[in-house]
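Quick illustration, no need to memorize.
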Amino acid sequence: MIVLTEFVSIDGVVEAPGGEDFKYPNWTFEFERGPDGERYKEAESLRASALLLGRKTYEGFAAAWPQYDGELADKYNTMPKYVVSSTLTDPQWAGTTVLNGDLVKDVTRLKQEVDGEISVAGSIQLAQSLLALDLVDEIHLMASPVILGHGRRLWAQAPDKTAWTLSEATVYGDSTLLTVYRRRA
């Protein structure tokens, strides 16, 4: 099961929520998620059986997580990781496999081989491709109460209509809304 998890603004921007080079770096951290919101994000990450990432997000994770200790760092550093890239050839982060073939075939194979959730965190270009190819089973959006006005959005344009069911909606901390949508069969 492919689970897309994104931090998003009210106007749909997903770019640079945690500090990349952007007009509003760290915009998602301007709003308190509270202890329950932090626990949710940690549990979401610990629940994943594998990570599927785009190259840029992968490089950020690979540079950061090996330096950390604790349950989440142990999980990320030891779990299977798949990075979609046509340029990365020698990944250094343990447990990483590069996917550089047909995205539909590769992801379909992963969905059959991986027992449990395959988490796609950030990875805007990959997320857009997975949505366009109808390969996403669940979408987790943690919306910060801010309108950024510009930046990359999750939905550039959908190729066609798809139906989803809202399975969870919870407000955390300072008006941060978590919504979970499941793909209708």
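The helical segments are 34-47, 55-64, 71-78, 103-113, 124-132.
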